[in-house]
Amino acid sequence: MFTSTAMARFDWSEYREYQPQAALLRFAAARPKPLGQLLIWPEQQQLHQWLAMAPWWQDRGWELVLLLPDPQQSYFDPAAEKVSDAQQTWVTTLGERLAPIFERQPELPQVVLTQGSASLWYQQLIQTGTLPAPSGLMVLNATPSDKATQQMLAMSLSRSGWPVLDLFSTRQPVSLLNQKLRRHASAREQADYESITIHSPLFSSRIMAAWITRHGWMPLPPGAPDFLKGVTPNEAGLSRSQDTGSGREAAPAKP
Questions:
Q1: Quick check: 60 and 209 in contact, CB under 8 A?
Q2: DSSP 236
Q3: pLDDT > 90: what percent of the chain?
């Protein structure tokens, strides 16, 4: 596992997938024509956990784009009422960096996963029209502690207009509060929103793939297991909120 110091000093040019101009790693699908593109925007010091996931998605016909997070995403405040010139310059540069990712194969399903502080920045870039709308959005551990920021993110996700999968790997008070606010906001807006608490990170790729499959962006393989058919029993390492965000209760898991 990489430490934060090792990550900062790591020579990414050793990866053939590294694209220095955009500061990202692009892992091509293991097929001539990808089924879709998954863009992962990690939290600071969390890149290592996504590197190990790349071959899994490649084998399933998806191209995986992994951004190298910029330290500034934790330094600047996306909810700031008064934006400094330095922050505005950084946001503009960030948009210019990310936009070409979505222009490369626009006909494919474009699914985005944002982790932690990246979630607020991504929502800002979408709302300002800097980036195109994704096919679907997955959010992992986006748990701001400031009340105003919590409300802002909840409102933004609930009004996004595309499917949202909200993933939490902890049940700390701040996580539970963010989860509750976003469920209620999504229910009011009748949004396509789903909230899941992951009890083990080992299941994250499968949970994500199941959600993508249920939205028709990944084919259901022959003899597909229950988790790809939308059946997610608690013993599979996760729990699903009974508030689906649409004002309806989730269907009970099949026995």
A1: yes
A2: G
A3: 59
pLDDT at res. 226: 67
Is it the case that residue 255 has pLDDT exceeding 50? no
Which tokens go with 11? 């020579």
| Alpha carbons 139 and 207: distance in angstroms, whole number | 13
Number of C-beta neighbours around residue 194 at 10 A: 23
Q: Under DSSP, is residue 119 helix (H, G, I), strand (E, B) or coil?
A: helix
Spatial CA neighbour of 60 closest among 82, 89, 27, 16:
27
Kindly provide the b/e burial profile for residues 226-235, where b requires at least 16 CB atoms within 10 angstroms of the residue's own CB.
ebbeeebeee
**Residues of the chain by 3-state class (helix, strand, coil), percent to 5:** 40, 20, 40
Q: How many CB atoms lie within 10 A of CB 52?
A: 10
Q: Given a cut of 90, is residue 28 above it in pLDDT?
A: yes
Q: DSSP for 10-47? A: --GGGSTTEETTTTEEEE--SSSS-SEEEEEEPPTT-H
Three-state SS string over 145-206 comes to CCHHHHHHHHHHHHCCCCCEEEEECCCCHHHHHHHHHHHHHHHHHCCCEEEEEECCHHHHHH
